[in-house]
Model the fold of this input.
Amino acid sequence: MSSTPPTGRPPDVYEEVQQSEEFGELRRAHRSFAFPLTVGFITWYLLYVLLSSYADGFMGTEVVGNINMAFVLGILQFVTTFAIAWWYARHAAAKLDPRSEQLKAAVESRVAGNGTEVGK
Amino acid sequence: MTGATTTNALQMFAQSEPGEHRTLIVTLFSVFVAFTLAVTVWAGRKTKDATDYYAGGRSFTGFQNGLAISGDYMSAASFLGIAGAIALAGYDGFLYSIGFLVAWLVALLLVAEPLRNSGRFTMGDVLAYRMRQRPVRTAAGVSTIVVSIFYLLAQMVGAGALVALLLGITGEAGKNLIVVLVGLVMILYVTIGGMKGTTWVQIIKAVLLILGTLLITILVLAKFDFNISQLLGAAADNSGKGSAFLEPGLKYGVTSTSTIDFISLGIALVLGTAGLPHILIRFYTVPTAQTARKSVLWAIGIIGGFYLMTIALGFGAAALIKQETIIESNPAGNTAAPLLAEEIGGGAGSTGGAILLAMISAVAFATILAVVAGLTLASSSSFAHDLYANVIRKGKATEKEEIAAARIAAVAIGAVAIVLGVFAGSLNVAGLVALAFAVAASANLPTILYSLFWKRFTTQGALWSIYGGLFTSVFLVLFSPVVSGKETSMWPGVDFQWFPLENPGLISIPAGFLLGWLGSMLSKDEDATGKKYAELEVRSLTGAGAH
Done:
């Protein structure tokens, strides 16, 4: 059993699709959302870690009763994680899924199961 | 474990002479094992081809897989380790849970869907796609097995700690017997049930773990009138450390080295998850990338809720149990959660205490068993699919031979886990798992991300990032205080430690990324030229031709 990419297929189908405007849009829709957001939540998390390490006074500030800033920020990390997950799910359903399904159908109709290219 | 009759029966069972709870633990745990083995045998009957064995026939729904991912992820480290770390170090223990959770966003945004679209059974599938197969698969197989063994070590340490406390087995022989039994059951799950059986074991365990934790959490919060501030105040008072217990720094703020260690740990936690082999293969058990996404969304919800509850468990233990008692029971705090269960049920010697202790302990055993099974499945799959079928047999092995190799590898890795469990010491389980995360983040994550998103990535780059990240992280751990030079080290008697950090992530993760980049830039390979990447990119984003 082989898990290599099937070599019988005409590779230029994929290259053509990769160059196409539709695919460019899909890639952009994914990257322009996922990449900055990843940088964002990692920065926010590292900020939290750094504050925990170096800002004792600030983190120890009491907010309500025994609940201090450190605790509030920690819980906020949970909240932002849930929010980003929800946001991405919405983005993917609206912007990624329709495009990828369309392209998938286009690619699969050109690359038939037996590896020969079907006419456009 | 539900229903009035069962409870009555258990109460009669537990009419409490000290030590009777042990019988109860063993009974509950045996029920779990018998039931899950039956499920495994049922799943095994339906396991016919490689897709069934490695990927559960890709037949699971997003919700089922989300539960199974949670089951795989909420290990003894999360449950026992984090609760213990919070109980002893207060706020600093909390960082673990945050890192473990935020990490899921990396998997959600960057890894789960493209991986599902472009691979079949293992992490190696995705890497091998555009690279020279044999060297890259060898590297992927090696790093999968190393990460899994680190993780296995943590689980087996957890098992050892639990056995000693809960079954009152202090003799080495008795403890070893239990570890061997755990190992044997796990081998049965994996070899008979394959991915299908193992997934069901994870689902059952996840449900039990969540229900058990929820019960204890509600009982703890009820004691403090559902007022978090009151709980935290009581924890601070009872810990003897006052408000410092609620602030960062108790565990990691002692010296500037430990502060940097804390940062290193944080980075490893957040970047490690999306490189853990036993998590990655779970994305293959669903039919499409959209279901893979749904699985991760469910997992984030379930795991997030669970970690919020561990806060109540940890601070609850600190509030209700004396620090000395926790430390006496296990110096690393791994038994704080079961102790809390006993306390909240009415204290040592009471029937309620015995029942809750038995329940939580049985859940903890189930947790260890299930996670160990997941790890064994991941590493034996990678051995059979990457190393045996594609490297040793050069793709000429039949499906039957490949699955046979996977089963044999599962037995061998199970044996390794048993040996590790027998020799494991008293390290904090959460700390050990953090090491597995560091290795995964250094060796696997850079390679996966470059493969999926960077056109110029080459075979040489992949090899440099896997072996470089792997070597750097393992090398630094070897010379860190985790292994030698401190009382809490694996070998406390010897001292060849010179690397000051317990977690190597701060150095080894950038090293992995840097080496992958450098290896590609210095590469003379022609495989960087677009064709294969075009196919991978199109397939990973659209799902065209996905198996």
User: Anything to note?
Assistant: Chain A has one domain: 11-110. The longest strand of chain A covers residues 62-64.
